[in-house]
Amino acid sequence: MFKVLCVTTAMLWSAGAYAQQFAVDGTVEDAKTHHALPGATVEMQELKRFAVADEFGRFTLSKVPAGEFTLAVRFLGYIVKQEKVTVPLSGPVSISLEESAQMTDEVVVVATRANDKTPTTFTNVSKQAIQKQNFGQDLPMLLNWTPSVVTTSDAGAGVGYTGIRIRGSDATRINVTVNGIPYNDSESQGSYWVDIPDIASSSQSIQVQRGVGSSTNGAGAFGASINLQTNTRNDAPYASLITSAGSFGTLRNTIQLGSGLLNDHWVVDARVSKIQSDGFIDRASSNLQSYYFSGGYYNKGTMLKAVVFGGKERTYQAWYGVPQSRLNNDVEAMMTTASNEGWNEAQTQNLLTSNSRTFNPYTYKNQVDDYTQNHYQLHFSQRVNEALTANVSLHYTKGKGYYEEYRYNDNFASYGLSPVVIGDSTIASSDLVRRRWLNNDFYGVTYSLNYDKDNWNVILGGAWNRYTGDHYGEIIWAQVATVPTEYRYYFNNADKRDGNVYLKTSYQFSNRLSGYVDLQVRKILYTTSGIENKQNPINVDANFTFFNPKAGLTYALADNQQLYGSYAVANREPVRDDFVDAPNGIVPKHETLNNVEVGYRRTGRNYALNVNYYLMDYHNQLVLTGKVNDVGASLRTNVDRSYRTGVEVEGMLRISQQFSWTANVTLSRNRIRDFNEVLYDYGQNFDQYLEVKRSYKSTDIAFSPNVIVGSGFSYRPFKNLELTWLAKYVGAQYLDNTSNKNRRINDYFVNDLRLTYTIHPSFMREIALSGLLNNFLNEKYQSNGWTWGYLGGGAEYRENYYFPQAGTNFLLMAAFKF
């Protein structure tokens, strides 16, 4: 009986102890604007327990015993605040933070970012939101849930070569900066996230501006811009180990370390990551490595910070896509595809016997892309006085790599070689392996002078950058032994110099009304010389000077409501291929975009709403028409008038303590007013070569869906568990500019489920266990593609290629934070 009584007493004491544990709930906001501060950290000092404020500024510390405690609340750019609380609370605690006068990392990106007084359209993605979705996939996949965004993956699973379009604009029209430094490739103007894998793990925040946006550095923002800021100062030392694994042999390991603030001035951060995946598409493997290191010195008025990051990628090529005939499992059509492509017996058998959704035409074991890229940045900021801050940044990027290809029965003439005579036989072609190399350097300086006093906020900024690149190709093996190995069959170099200066001015006319003027002048010099890969001489000497003005107004209807409107102009130079492939004597024209943005913003304690109308009117937009040059390369030509117009709605709603919902909708119309398609007619007996033009009125711009919807519905059944249902609908897209339904990507609706469970044991800061079930309804869809066709034998032939995305698949992640 005594034992039973002891056990019963212990159980009752345990239950009582458990019953005396409480939750500490609250919100963190800006003391002046009362806007939520998502990502703010809340530490219960006595218990060494941490919480992070969500997108509404909410935080929860669970299983707290009764008593008095101190909450230390921190957010970058704000004064640390200590708040005494008595548990149990009578209600949620509200904590307001004051802005700090101390120098922070934010000064590095403030010149190129929009804020609440900028009359343009943007979305901020916090570190917390990035970490929730970061299972090791490329950065575009993490931005998939922001408005007007469509993403795609060559390998079908989000690792390797991935792409992003915003309002239908592809990566070559999206300006990307990292800490204010241009990231776009200077010649192609694309951004290759595979070169800096897992950069999301070292990202503090990301701002996506849609439309022209505010002036920035590098290539013109001709549809959108992505402004990424890497890790900012963390005053507390930390360490974390993150590992994730899932379908298609995907595995990612990340180690992060931070010194915290040393001697009140110094901070050091480091990360190493390794990601590998077999890919959904056959042989579409990825082997990715990356690193990040920063060291900073801070005092009240000075910041000096060095940032070094980079990566090495080796990915098996999956950029050709799957022919429609294979997707439809149509044997007769597949035989036509093989004939149109000129494939041999082995290639045809691969087409006929492969899985209909995972077919890859490449079977050579080293059909890979192999590239290394290293970035070096040095940032210096000095507060001259209370109103004036100066910033200057130096940068250098080194890139080198190649892609290797097995070529069947290639003509020697394509490589500048004469036929080989062996005995009585003359051999004019051979199987061979070639590598196409790029060796480039990019360096320069960015700067800004920020003045903020009374009613004025003025930023004078700009950049000067230079890119040099060597392009060359080598034959490393040939079936015919007399072909010289390591033979360099083409070589050309490029030199591009890009300078800009901008003046941004905001003036507060009254408590309600503020005006904004942003004037930018940009100068580009681009030269090339040598022989390009099709054995043609390439000699470009281009010179552009652009004036890009922007102006607008912001009117505060109330403290939490704003109306804004702006008009902006952007000009953009042609990309490398536009010059390389242009017929002799033809110089491609630059493109011009006139952009109108009108919107309404409203925030509350439990909701946020942004509604925006946009008009993007293009002059001389460069598009594919089907026209080819004398060596068969596809040409982009200028179309006189085209436009994109639409409405974007973005909102967040906290329904209750357990339920919250984020959603965005884009409804748009994207048109070319007059479009001429070019087809080539080879005649009834394939003995002629005629150019045939077909004219169209008001056709859809390729890859521009009229409807895009994103949704994230979160449920917290209890404090440490969050379930989120992520849904994405993308309307139909056309593969070319003819609005032909036989050449389109069908609409798709994809649903993911994300689960996160966090605990805060006494021996470490946090353990987070997460799962991501992608496409749990197993939607069979394609997110990208391309098309080509011709006339011949009295018929019209079309070949459509698509990039299928994976069906139901999963990723699991464990994060250990110390």
From TrEMBL:
Record Pfam families: CarbopepD_reg_2, Plug, TonB_dep_Rec_b-barrel
Keywords per UniProt: Cell outer membrane, Ion transport, Iron, Iron transport, Membrane, Signal, TonB box, Transmembrane, Transmembrane beta strand, Transport
Subcellular location: Cell outer membrane
InterPro entries recorded: Beta-barrel_TonB, Beta-barrel_TonB_sf, CarboxyPept-like_regulatory, Plug_dom, Plug_dom_sf, TonB-dep_rcpt-like
Keyword check for Chloroplast: no
Residue ranges occupied by any TonB-dependent receptor plug domain in the UniProt entry: 116-224
Signal sequence region: 1-19
One Gene Ontology MF term: siderophore uptake transmembrane transporter activity
SUPFAM superfamilies found in the cross-reference section: Carboxypeptidase regulatory domain-like, Porins
TonB-dependent receptor-like beta-barrel domain span: 341-762
Protein topology in the membrane: Multi-pass membrane protein
GO CC annotations, alphabetized: cell outer membrane
Top-rank taxon, per record: Bacteria
Family: Belongs to the TonB-dependent receptor family.
Name of the protein in its database record: Iron complex outermembrane recepter protein
